[in-house]
Amino acid sequence: MARQKTFFTCQQCGCQSPKWLGKCPDCNQWNTLVEEQSQPQQGGRALPTPGKPQKMAEITSTAEDRVSCGIAEFDRTLGGGLVPGSLILVGGDPGIGKSTLLLQAIDKLAQKGTALYVTAEESTRQVKLRGERLGATAENLYLLAETSLEQIRKRITELKPDYLVIDSIQTIFTNSIESAPGSVSQVRECAGQLMLVAKGEGIPTFLVGHVTKDGSIAGPRVLEHMVDTVLYFEGDPGHPYRILRAVKNRFGSTNEIGVFEMCESGLREVANPSELFLSERPEKNAGSVVVPAMEGTRPILIELQALVSTSSFGTPQRTAIGIDHKRMALLIAILDKKVELQLAGQDIFVNVAGGVRLDEPALDLATIAALASSHLNRAVEAQTVIFGEVGLTGEVRAVSQPELRIKEAARLGFNRCILPQGSLKNIKPPKGMTLVGIRHARELLDLVFN
């Protein structure tokens, strides 16, 4: 018999080394290499239907038949619904609501066909208790408490479900590999086997993934490459709002988000996030500005808050919550150099209300307005929205989809919009809305505070 070889695998990134190392050479993490044994080759695996080369011009393209999950915000994030045979990875912090969301979704899918919910972390009784609280009463919803991949595949073959949930992939193990559940080898092999099941039998499959302390899904990065869709469930523990965001989607856009509110009876869809995020907005307070941000094809009105105060220490503090810290530092430098607003010795705090994270250049002009408002202690008019990108010389640049932003602001009762002059082209303002175009950040201060 050939001697069985051993190697060391990083449990963070999957890097392999013939000897133990204290620090992984790829991800630079300490004490993450674990000894594993190489497995004998069992021959290549292939999908049940062998393929052959075809000319691209001869292939007929048809739209994928999608199945609605019964939750509109979930369908929006998936790109319009479930695609048969798709493999979907759902990640998020512990207790954020991943299992709750999938149990609600699989209950609605079970009303259209047979659904199997495999729980590897809880007993069926615990899932049943949660299901009663959520109102999950579908007759064709089956529960299975199992951690062995071989047993799970056997039950799938017997039941032949139309929909499948694995909660979670890090706790499933296969007997063909000797390493512990949750190791890189186990996660990679189990995900590969489940991918063959999903693709070969056309079963839409959800995989729940744990998240590490740095915010990424635990296990090798190859796991995200193997699946068709990667969804992250985000939210601030101090707020009831949750955002489902797609970071990879082979069947749709990665810019869409779904907004939910955590209630006693589970997750409730938020069809109008703008009203939700502005419901507690204080009016006539310095440092508060409303910005129409775009999340995919959906415009959302968000309150941007800033606080500028005299520093009590030698080094002023700079804190940004919900926006890029480096982008905030850049805008402070523009205010100091190009607008001549002295902020060098000030403590500066910027916050996006509601626990939302925004990352688009259209926030620049609103951030500058909020900083100037707090520094001058003069409030921006309550019925004014501001958006636009700001360059390093202080010029205001046009942004994408200005018409959708303006329509959303007008729908919620705002009557004035300050935007880049370049975005005014071919835009017909809604009834009751006044559009004001500017070319430089200095014009914003003259317009708003004079």
Summarize the structure.
With 450 residues, the chain is of the alpha/beta class. The chain is built from eleven helices and 21 strands.
Could you explain how this protein is built, in words?
With 450 residues, this protein is of the alpha/beta class. The chain has helices at 72-78, 98-109, 124-134, 149-159, 184-201, 222-226, 273-278, 325-337, 364-376, 402-411, 441-449, and strands spanning 6-10, 16-17, 33-37, 87-92, 115-119, 141-145, 163-167, 205-209, 229-234, 241-249, 257-263, 266-269, 288-295, 298-310, 318-321, 346-352, 384-386, 389-390, 396-397, 416-420, 434-438. Strands 6-5-7-8-4-9-10-11-12 form a nine-stranded mixed β-sheet, with helices on both faces. A hairpin with a 6-residue loop joins strand 9 (229-234) and strand 10 (241-249). The relative contact order is 0.09.
What's the helix and strand layout?
Layout: E1 6-10, E2 16-17, E3 33-37, H1 72-78, E4 87-92, H2 98-109, E5 115-119, H3 124-134, E6 141-145, H4 149-159, E7 163-167, H5 184-201, E8 205-209, H6 222-226, E9 229-234, E10 241-249, E11 257-263, E12 266-269, H7 273-278, E13 288-295, E14 298-310, E15 318-321, H8 325-337, E16 346-352, H9 364-376, E17 384-386, E18 389-390, E19 396-397, H10 402-411, E20 416-420, E21 434-438, H11 441-449
Parallel strand pairs: 4-8, 4-9, 5-6, 5-7, 7-8, 15-16, 17-20, 20-21
Antiparallel strand pairs: 1-2, 1-3, 9-10, 10-11, 11-12, 13-14, 14-16, 18-19
